[in-house]
Amino acid sequence: MIKQLRLATIVMSLFLVSFTSYYYSIDDVVTAMRTGxxxxxxxxxxxxxxxxxPGKSDNYSKSxxxxxxxxxxxxxxxxxxxxxxxxENKDGSLFCVGTLQTSNGNYRTKFxxxxxxxxxxxxxxxxxxxx
Length: 131
What we know:
alpha+beta; six-stranded mixed beta sheet; 4 helices
C-alpha cells in the first residue's frame, strides 16, 4: 500500500511539473544584482538591452551587455542591492528602482522587464552614481 502511494505521488508530481513553464521574475533579477554576477544576470536579458552607465549608454546585444556589466562589476565590487520601489505598468511590464551598493559608492539602479513570449525579460538597465 505504501509503495503504491509513493508511486502515485511521484507520477502526480511529474505530471504537474510537465505543465509548468519557467517564468523569470523580477526577484530573479534582484538576486543576480545582489551578487553582481553578470553571467547570471544576462540569463534574463532580451536579445537586445539598453544599458546606461556613467559615461556609457547604448543598446547592446545580449552578449555585449553581459561583457559591459562584467567590466562594471569588476570595477565596482557589489556589496548589496536594496529595492526602493518596484511595480507593474498597465501593459504588464515590470520595473524596479533600487540602490546598488558597491566598493566605489552607491548607484541608483533601475531596470525594466517586458513580457516576451512566455516570460519576462530585461530590456533596460540604468546605473547612476549617487553622492
